[in-house]
Structure formats: structure tokens, C-alpha cells
Amino acid sequence: MAEPAQVPSLVYLVTGGCGFLGEHIVRMLLEREPRLRELRVFDLHLSPWLEELKTGPVQVTAIQGDVTQAHEVAAAVAGSHVVIHTAGLVDVFGKASPQTIHRVNVQGTQNVIEACMQTGTQFLIYTSSMEVVGPNVKGHPFYRGNEDTPYEAVHRHPYPCSKALAEQLVLEANGRKVNGGLPLVTCALRPTGIYGEGHQVMRDFYNQGLRFGGRLFRAIPASVEHGRVYVGNVAWMHVLVARELEQRAALMGGQVYFCYDKSPYKSYEDFNMEFLGPCGLRLIGTHPLLPYWLLVLLATLNALLQWLLRPLVLYTPLLNPYTLAVANTTFTVSTNKAQRHFGYKPLFSWEESKARTIQWVQALEGSAW
Ligand SMILES: NC(=O)c1ccc[n+]([C@@H]2O[C@H](COP(=O)([O-])OP(=O)(O)OC[C@H]3O[C@@H](n4cnc5c(N)ncnc54)[C@H](O)[C@@H]3O)[C@@H](O)[C@H]2O)c1
Ligand SMILES: CC(C)[C@@H](O)CC[C@@H](C)[C@H]1CC[C@H]2[C@@H]3[C@H](O)C=C4C[C@@H](O)CC[C@]4(C)[C@H]3CC[C@]12C
């Protein structure tokens, strides 16, 4: 990658750039990467807001494409200095088949790696996930762990399996020669549960609460801690890694980094109420209203219904055996590896992250505000 030049000279590619996280990465790059000459936004579904970004000094190139199509990926990668690969199927609700999840998340990632090798792009940042680690199928808690904490990562669900395989492909590709003979430098970022403006699951919870007269019903004990991270800080970490990866290739190449900030450790439901409460919703119950065995039964019935209805309609409720197990297992990280390796500090405080998310919920259609 060219030396930091006075004149903007770099070309970045963001796959999945129209998604929840991708949009924040795209906007953060335009705001905070002065070396950018061109920003390519590659996505299966291009968003209308891209048009408003084309009026700035950086050339924003919207590319409608599919990461499962190697030739489309290669065309988008060719000539780029950095690829941020965040495209993926984030599906734990049974919307896509296991085969499709694998094709997009694993084969799609392989296509990105091969495109970098073929076209000579040296720097690849992959958006991985906490789920590469856990929670595992045995429900073992991961309490304030870090990148080196021993943990038995055992997965059966297609989504975490696909993220683990894709991350492994990316890390193993580090150091391979790209076209032109220089080494490929890769690293993987592992966000925990991301929240913030544009988070679809948060929107689903809000709408569910509105349907029940402003009430949500506690299903998970408050003692089950979940690590969450604000989308703006995840985007910032991607921008920083992309900036530092060349200078610190020996240290950062082939590494994984959890994405973290000062968001408090709370149960998934209590954490959501930090935003939904100020927007008029109430979480009913200081303890789960139903016994766990009944929740397991309901989740299993949901899975059975999904299977039975699939020929007719896609039934994808929030509660299924996998989401219940994940929600009910403590998973929190406590690390400073990103700060030690490339000087990361959260760009947004907890207070700012909370205020921005509340403002977004309040602006949602049908908001109680
Ligand atoms: N949301 C979270 O809590 C979270 C946490 C950890 C990691 N992640 C990871 O972050 C990344 C982005 O997640 P998100 O929450 O923004 O999801 P998202 O669904 O909002 O964004 C994914 C984007 O990828 C695009 N995409 C999907 N299939 C594609 C294909 N075949 N070709 C090209 N583009 C395709 C989608 O159109 C979408 O714009 C994913 O890799 C996900 O695994 C998300
Ligand atoms: C219906 C109740 C049991 C309710 O509490 C279920 C919540 C459930 C939908 C979420 C609980 C934990 C979430 C996951 C977690 O935040 C991390 C994830 C990793 C990321 O890569 C993708 C999203 C997710 C799997 C996230 C999905 C929603 C939950 C399962």
C-alpha cells in the first residue's frame, strides 16, 4: 500500500457496505480516512443513501454484486489497496438454509481471499464474530474472557460454523504471496453483539413491545451477562486496523481482535431496555416469567412450526432453540489487545452510544414518541 501521501491516493473496498455495520464503516471511512481517493461499496443490495455520498471529495463507487460469484468479487477487488470484508448472512433465525449460509459466509470469503491474491491487493480485514468462540453447544459461560482465554469452541449451528470456517480461511491466508510477490496481510475482528442505529433485532424487540402495549416480558435471568458493543466503535476499529495494518504487519498480521468498548455488561434483555425503556417500553418481571423448561418447549415448538410452515411461509420468531441457548449463556469479553496492538480506544463513550441509539429508536416508525 502506498506511503501515506499528502494527496488522497488509496482505494478501499467494503463488501457488505450497505448493511447495518457496513454503512457505519463506509460513513466512518469518508469522515476519518483522509488518504482515500476511492471508496468502493460492494453489496448484493445497494441502498439509496449511497447516492448522497457521491457529492463529496472521495469517489464513492457503488457495486452491486454477490460475494459467491468469484468473478464479481475479483472485478471489485482489482486495484484496491485495502479490502474490508463485512458481507455475510447474519442468520440465526432460520431465514436461509445452512447451504446458503455456508455459500455466502465461507465460499464468499474464500472468493475475497482469492481475489486479493489474484489482483495483488495486500490488506484484508475480515469482520468475524464472537460466535467463532462461543457460546458453545454445551452452554459454557465465557466470563470477561480475552483473545487468549481457553474455551472449548464447539458449534453445530450453521451461522457460527460458517464464521469460524471463514475466519480460519482469512487467518491462514496471512503471509501468502499476492500477484506481484508481496505478502497478503490479514486480520479478523470479532465483535460481540453489536447495537446502534440500524440494528434490526433491536427494531424487532421494539415492535414486539409496541404490539404488547408497551411491555416486554423477561425470559432470561438478569444474572446472565452479555457483552455488547456500539456499532460506531466497531466501525472505528475497522478504520483503524485498515490504517495501521501496513505499518504493523508483523504484529497484526494473522491476528484476531475482539471489538469492545465501555458498554455495560448486562443480560441481553436488560441491555436492550437501556434504549427501549426511555422510548416508553417496560420489561415485566424481575425474574423470568416462565420456567426455563417451558421456554425450551416453546422454542422447540417454534422450530417445528418453522419447519412445517416453510413450504407456505417463512416463520422466523426471535425465540428458537439456538437464540434461547445463546441468550441464556454468559458471554462477555474484557481485553485491551486492540489498544496494545494498534492504539484502539473507543471513539464513542457509553453515554454517547446510548444517546445515539435512543435517538434512533425514537425516530422509528410507529414510535411511542
Ligand atoms: N450484528 C451483529 O451483532 C454482529 C456481531 C458480530 C459480527 N457481525 C458480523 O458483521 C458483519 C455485518 O453484519 P450486520 O449485522 O451488519 O449484517 P447485515 O445483514 O446488516 O449486513 C450484511 C450485508 O451483507 C450483504 N450481503 C449478504 N449476502 C451477500 C452476498 N452474497 N454478496 C454481497 N453482499 C451480501 C447484505 O446485503 C448486507 O448489506 C457480518 O459478517 C456479521 O457476521 C455482526
Ligand atoms: C426470545 C428471548 C429468549 C430473547 O432474549 C432472545 C434474544 C436473542 C434473539 C439474541 C440474544 C443474543 C443475540 C446474539 C448475540 O448478540 C450475538 C450474535 C453474534 C453476531 O455475529 C450475530 C448476531 C448474534 C447471533 C445475536 C443474535 C440475537 C441473539 C441470539
From TrEMBL:
Its EC number is 1.1.1.181. It comes from the Eukaryota. It catalyses: 7alpha,25-dihydroxycholesterol + NAD(+) = 7alpha,25-dihydroxy-4-cholesten-3-one + NADH + H(+); (24S)-7alpha-dihydroxycholesterol + NAD(+) = (24S)-7alpha,24-dihydroxycholest-4-en-3-one + NADH + H(+); (25R)-cholest-5-en-3beta,7alpha,26-triol + NAD(+) = (25R)-7alpha,26-dihydroxycholest-4-en-3-one + NADH + H(+); 7alpha-hydroxycholesterol + NAD(+) = 7alpha-hydroxycholest-4-en-3-one + NADH + H(+). The keyword Lipid metabolism applies. The chain crosses the membrane at residues 290-309. It is a multi-pass membrane protein. Keywords: Endoplasmic reticulum, Lipid metabolism, Membrane, NAD, Oxidoreductase, Steroidogenesis, Transmembrane, Transmembrane helix. One of its GO terms (molecular function) is cholest-5-ene-3-beta,7-alpha-diol 3-beta-dehydrogenase activity. PANTHER family: 3 BETA-HYDROXYSTEROID DEHYDROGENASE TYPE 7, NAD DEPENDENT EPIMERASE/DEHYDRATASE. This is 3 beta-hydroxysteroid dehydrogenase type 7. The lineage of its organism: Eukaryota, Metazoa, Chordata, Craniata, Vertebrata.
